[in-house]
Design a protein that fits this description.
The complex is a heterodimer of chains A (about 55) and B (about 260). With about 55 residues, chain A is mainly alpha-helical. Chain A contains 1 helix and no strands. By secondary structure, chain B is an all-alpha fold. Chain B is about 75% helix and about 0% strand. Chain B has 8 helices and no strands. In chain B, helix 3 packs antiparallel against helix 4, helix 3 packs across helix 6 and helix 4 packs parallel to helix 6. Chain B is elongated and about 90 Å long.
């Protein structure tokens, strides 16, 4: 019984580390992506569309 | 059957035409969102925990599915920086400088993730968040060197001088990247050696699939981030050049006016 409980506690502990790692990776990448896109929109307004070759305008 | 022009096609969900997005980047971004959701299911639900045995990692093996891919993405980013830096020194065109600078910033983000996920892994596997082990130390050094690259770009005002100095530093900094990769083979290290970089990988089945899926996803994420970051760098360079031109024109006009008064 104690062995089973120990195994469950260890598994729960492992999952908290796993969840932490995934939350950090997804969170940092999502935040960085949003920051780059928002910066692009702000700075892009200062440049005419003809200088933004990828623009569909 | 009607066909649409590129402008019409992009216009369907082109809400911010001023930004760094294009039709292609939006399509890739949408595919990546779906792929990330599938990856999370494969890595966290479908793939089994590491089996029994003294070296079994249990559920902690799932950290490897993100740790290894982000590390590969950061190597790729710095490899692109080195290539773009060499090309800049050869061609002297601002596109290569923009590519190098953009790739360093994206690479630093992936390096932070490599260090963070590695540290979480280390806390359970080795009982410590940080160890001055050859792999960890050389990775930290790589991180600091590329931070120095970004600091240099902010410190030098003249665009051409900045691009030249940054290109040299981009090449010098890359020397550390193979050292990071081979540190586990060259020195006695706590860090394990390559998991799949040999003919007899130590994992198989769904675990190997999750790891390979993570690698492909990380490289595609790098490519998508680079599309946006490179365009942002390009726009910033053009805005800076226009600002310099305007300042020079104003200075000349002032000089002419001063000459007229005298």
């Amino acid at each position: 019984m104690i062995a089973v409980l120990n195994a469950m506690v260890l598994a729960a502990s492992d999952w908290s580390y796993v969840a932490g790692a995934y939350i950090i990776v997804v969170g940092v990448l999502a935040t960085y992506s949003a920051a780059v896109i928002i910066r692009g929109r702000k700075v892009g307004k200062q440049l005419p569309a003809k200088d933004r070759r990828w623009s569909s305008e | 059957m009607t066909s649409s022009t590129p402008g019409q096609r992009a216009g369907r969900f082109d809400m911010h035409p001023d930004g760094t997005a294009s039709h292609g980047s939006r399509v890739l971004g949408s595919i990546l969102l779906i792929a990330v959701a599938i990856f999370l299911i494969v890595a966290l639900v479908a793939s089994p925990p590491d089996g029994a045995g003294a070296d079994a990692m249990g559920d902690m093996v799932r950290i490897m599915y993100v740790h290894v891919p982000v590390a590969i993405a950061c190597y790729t980013a710095f490899m692109v920086t080195a290539f773009a830096s060499a090309m800049y020194l050869w061609k002297r065109t601002e596109g290569w400088d923009c590519l190098a600078a953009a790739s360093v910033e994206v690479g630093i983000v992936f390096t932070v993730l490599t260090l963070a996920t590695g540290s979480i892994w280390g806390h359970t596997a080795w009982g410590t968040w940080w160890e001055w082990d050859p792999r960890l130390t050389s990775t930290a050094l790589m991180f600091v060197m590329y931070l120095g690259y970004l600091a240099l770009r902010r410190a030098v005002v003249d665009p051409q001088s900045r691009a030249k100095q940054a290109a040299v530093l981009g090449l010098i900094s890359f020397i550390n990247v193979p050292i990071v990769h081979y540190s586990v083979d060259w020195w006695r290290s706590l860090h394990q050696t390559a998991t799949i970089g040999r003919l007899d990988p130590t994992i198989d089945g769904l675990k190997l699939f999750a790891l390979l899926f993570g690698m492909v996803l990380a490289l595609l994420l790098y490519a998508w981030l680079m599309l946006h970051r490179f365009r942002l760098q390009w726009v910033e360079t053009q805005v800076e050049a226009k600002g310099l031109d305007t300042a020079l024109a104003e200075r000349r006009a002032e000089a002419v006016a001063d000459g007229g008064v005298r």
